[in-house]
Amino acid sequence: MAAQVLSMEARTGRSNQRYGSQGERLVAGIVPLSTDKYYVLLIQSTRRGGWVLPKGGWETDEATAQDAAKREAWEEAGIVVKITYDLGLIPERRKPDQLTAQAPKAAYHFFEGAVEKQESQWPEMHKRSRQWMTFSQATQALADRPELLDALNRCTMHR
């Protein structure tokens, strides 16, 4: 298999976004774990400044949600991941007052991945910081994002 070429440019816009049958954005995400599974890598949300898991729209030129999750891991966190588990579909859990035109209703498909490489330069490095956290630290950091907490709780990391 040819080596994956990692672009230093993050995709923007929603023109290639996939949508579900109810008009919801299809979002792919990753729970990126250290190889020993004691740490998860969280990134800073550009919109609210809190911590989140790497995730983003599954686009029409991506064959699978896994492809989208791996691209988001690279663009947002600067990591190359090997997908280890499909954590399944997670429904929207935000309240109507948390939904906006910039953050519309979504359906999330999360995967667990082992971080194989962490690069010092990546597409969104000027917009986001990243931090390794224990399960309990990540649980606290994701407390106001129930859909992300659900993905974390489904993963196989050490508690």
Automatic annotation (TrEMBL):
Keywords: Hydrolase, Magnesium, Metal-binding. Residues 23-155 form the Nudix hydrolase domain. GO terms for molecular function: bis(5'-adenosyl)-hexaphosphatase activity; bis(5'-adenosyl)-pentaphosphatase activity; diphosphoinositol-polyphosphate diphosphatase activity; endopolyphosphatase activity; metal ion binding. Its cofactor is Mg(2+). GO terms for cellular component: cytoplasm; nucleus. GO terms for biological process: adenosine 5'-(hexahydrogen pentaphosphate) catabolic process; diadenosine hexaphosphate catabolic process; diadenosine pentaphosphate catabolic process; diphosphoinositol polyphosphate metabolic process. This is NUDIX hydrolase. It comes from Lophium mytilinum.
